[in-house]
Structure formats: C-alpha cells, structure tokens
Specification:
By secondary structure, the chain is mainly alpha-helical. It contains two helices and no strands. Keywords: Cell cycle, Cell division.
C-alpha cells in the first residue's frame, strides 16, 4: 500500500513537471522560429543587395562607359610605343616578416 501511494505521488508530481517542460519547449521553439524568420529576411535582403551590386559593377565596367569618360577627360587610346610602364619598389609590411 505504501508503494502504491509513492507511485501516485510521483505521477502527480510528474504531470505538472511534464506540462512545464512542454510549455518551455514550445516557448523556445517559437523563439527560435522567430530568429529563423529574421535571419531568412536578412538573407533575402543581402541576396537582393548582392544582385544590385553585381549589376552596378557590370555597368561601371562597361567598355563603352569607360571610353566615354576617357573622351570627356581628354584621354586618348595609346599604342604600345606610347605607353609608359612605371614599376614601384615593393614595400614590405611589418606583417610580411
């Protein structure tokens, strides 16, 4: 009879603990899903920004654009003989050792 009473008390104590743990798990799940949603939105935002950046790079690197700016600055295309190559001595950084 004493064992039966202990068993009933254990069951009675286990039910509220189980309910509490279930509620806690649901709360943590909802919190994590909110974080996942925020990260997904940020990922989408960064992806769109990256697409715009790639398009802008393509526009800025367009040969027609570079030629137009060069003409506006009064620059002319040079031949191999009219080009001057300048080589600067390499500068060693402290991090290079």
């Amino acid at each position: 009879m004493n064992n039966k009473r202990v068993f009933i008390l254990l069951i009675a104590a286990a039910l509220p603990v189980s309910a509490f743990l279930l509620v806690d798990q649901v709360y943590r799940y909802d919190h994590l899903m909110g974080q996942v949603d925020l990260l997904h939105a940020r990922q989408t935002e960064l992806f769109e920004e990256n697409k715009r950046t790639v398009v802008n790079i393509a526009i800025l690197r367009a040969p027609e654009r570079i030629d137009r700016i060069a003409r506006e600055l009064g620059l002319k295309k040079g031949s191999g003989r009219s080009l001057l190559e300048i080589t600067l001595p390499s500068i060693r950084r402290a991090s290079d050792g």
